[in-house]
Amino acid sequence: MRTYVAVLVCVAEAAAASGSQAPLYRESFVLLTARTEDEARSKARAHGEGLETSYRNEKGELITWTFRQLVDVAEVPDDSLGDGAELYTRHFRDFAAYTAFEPLLSGEDL
């Protein structure tokens, strides 16, 4: 068995009369064990679909989380998971675009 990390994207949308609030996206990094990458992809999709849920928030709005995309599945590059183990590496070219979409970097409250 090998250890893989899956990158999943889910979206939360409110079914409110106003409809003015933009959807909130969540990116999750999930560890999986599998014999092959194909098996890991299948398990990742099932995990993402298992994240789907609906509930009412404090305003009484119906919030629905939906699995949107399996972005990537990669074998964990570090054999021993412990302090400082690298789970996943992502590369990008436009730091301003990354800052714009990452609410924690821009100081926005979730």
What does this structure look like?
There is one protein chain. This protein is 23% helix and 39% strand. Strands 2-1-4-3 form a four-stranded antiparallel beta sheet, covered by helices on one side. It starts with a strand and ends with a helix. It has 110 residues and is α+β, with helices and mostly antiparallel strands. A hairpin with a 5-residue loop joins β3 (53-56) and β4.
Spatial sequence of strands, sheet with the most strands: 2-1-4-3
* Strand proportion: 35-45%
Radius of gyration: 17 Å
Portion in helices: 10-25%
How many β-strand stretches?
Answer: 4
Our count of helices gives: 3
Q: What is the arithmetic mean of pLDDT?
A: 88
The largest sheet is:
4 strands, antiparallel
Summarize the structure.
By secondary structure, the protein is of the alpha+beta class.
Key phrases:
4-stranded antiparallel β-sheet; 4 strands
Helix and strand layout, with pairings?
Elements: E1 2-15, E2 24-34, H1 37-50, E3 53-56, E4 62-75, H2 95-101, H3 103-106
Antiparallel strand pairs: 1-2, 1-4, 3-4
